[in-house]
Design a protein that fits this description.
- By secondary structure, the protein is of the alpha/beta class.
- It has two domains: 155 residues, no CATH class; 154 residues, Glutaredoxin (3-Layer(aba) Sandwich).
- Helix content is 43%, strand content 13%.
- It has eight helices and nine strands.
- α1 runs antiparallel to α2, α3 runs antiparallel to α4 and α4 runs antiparallel to α5.
- The longest helix is centred in the first third of the chain and has 27 residues.
Length: 345
């Protein structure tokens, strides 16, 4: 059809398709949905008292729902400009939270459920996503002029770049405490590590890589991470520990004679100044004996006794609850009857 005489022809310019932009938005959507699914798996598996990282358990379902919604929205491609801006705001907020967690000395931000990631690395990821979405996540505008958002994105990008540079520098210089460090609190720039056994339940024992044989220094984490183990952490000068050790030695002797699991290990928590092990504290060799290495100054309220299955903490007992075999008998009965997982004492 020919245009009518005297009426100017109007050409409609569509934004050109940007394959990298679409791939980036799709990847961010997948990451958001995956993080939500990992958090939901942890939230469903753990008791309410262990939902932990976000401090407000009732907020966790809301966060999971929002992340799933954002992920599906980004992957759908609907209203791309609005979705992109919401994603920038969302990951910018996450960057603020993970930066706070990192400065506070936390070793796991909780952003990926039971997959433990250092908050510094998560902060770098969040800021990188903000930068990429700001600069590369926007499709071309054709012949249209720059929008108000495009004119204002440079201050946002500059702030994100500065944050990324700071986070990257600190992450390199910041001392690494231990791998899989859920349930460890760091102080004095990482030189002091405090054991928090109430956070170990359903997680891999965070100090497995730090348990060594006394005297030889041979790593014992690989041995303890296979099969069923009862591991007792003790101080040499702890009176309650000295009363408790014979209880678990008797258990180790009984289990060794019967040929049944679990095995028993005693792990010393070094003190400063060092205290020698009292003579006669151990009167048998039926149990494995080790100590935490000297990579950090370790602080813990002992005795601490944990039940491990292939390195995963299934039960925890501390203080006076750990001094009697009652929680052990309950755990054994529970395993025999239901095969289930116990609870913190």
């Amino acid at each position: 059809m020919n245009p009518q005489p005297g009426r100017p022809t109007v050409s409609v310019s569509r934004p050109p398709t940007n394959p990298f932009c679409r791939f980036l938005v799709l990847a961010v959507g997948l990451l958001s949905a995956a993080a939500a699914m990992m958090k939901s798996r942890q939230y469903v598996r753990l008791p309410a008292a262990e939902h932990g990282q976000w401090e407000i358990p009732d907020f966790v379902p809301v966060l999971i729902t929002f992340e799933i919604f954002l992920g599906l929205w980004l992957m759908s491609g609907a209203f791309p400009a609005a979705a992109r801006r919401v994603a920038i705001g969302c990951f910018g907020s996450f960057a603020c939270y993970t930066l706070f967690e990192a400065i506070a000395g936390k070793t796991d931000c909780g952003c990926f459920g039971q997959v433990h990631v250092n908050p510094w690395y998560t902060f770098i990821l969040d800021v990188s996503l903000v930068l990429m979405l700001t600069f590369f996540g926007k499709p071309g505008r054709g012949n249209a002029g720059p929008s108000r958002w495009a004119q204002r994105k440079w201050p946002v990008a500059l702030a994100a770049a500065i944050g990324l540079a700071i986070g990257f520098t600190v992450a390199i210089l910041h001392p690494k405490v231990v791998s899989d460090a859920n349930g460890l609190a760091a102080a004095d720039n990482g030189r002091i590590v405090i054991l928090e056994p109430h956070k170990w339940l359903h997680h891999r024992l965070p100090v497995l890589g730090n348990i060594v044989a006394q005297g030889s220094g041979k790593a014992l984490g690989g041995l303890i991470s296979v099969g069923q183990w009862i591991v007792m952490f003790y101080h040499a000068s702890c009176d309650e520990c000295q009363q408790t050790i014979p209880v678990y030695e008797a258990l180790a002797r009984r289990e060794m004679l019967s040929g049944k699991a679990p095995h028993v290990a005693f792990v010393r928590v070094p003190s400063d100044p060092p205290n020698p092990v009292p003579p006669g504290l151990f009167d048998s060799r039926v149990a494995l004996r080790g100590t935490l290495d000297t990579s950090h100054q370790w602080f813990a309220t002992t005795p601490i006794v944990v039940e491990l299955r292939d390195g995963i903490v299934h039960r925890v007992a501390t203080g006076r609850s750990a001094m009697t075999p009652r929680w052990m008998n309950t755990a054994a009965h529970h395993r025999e009857t239901t095969g289930g997982i116990g609870a913190v004492q």
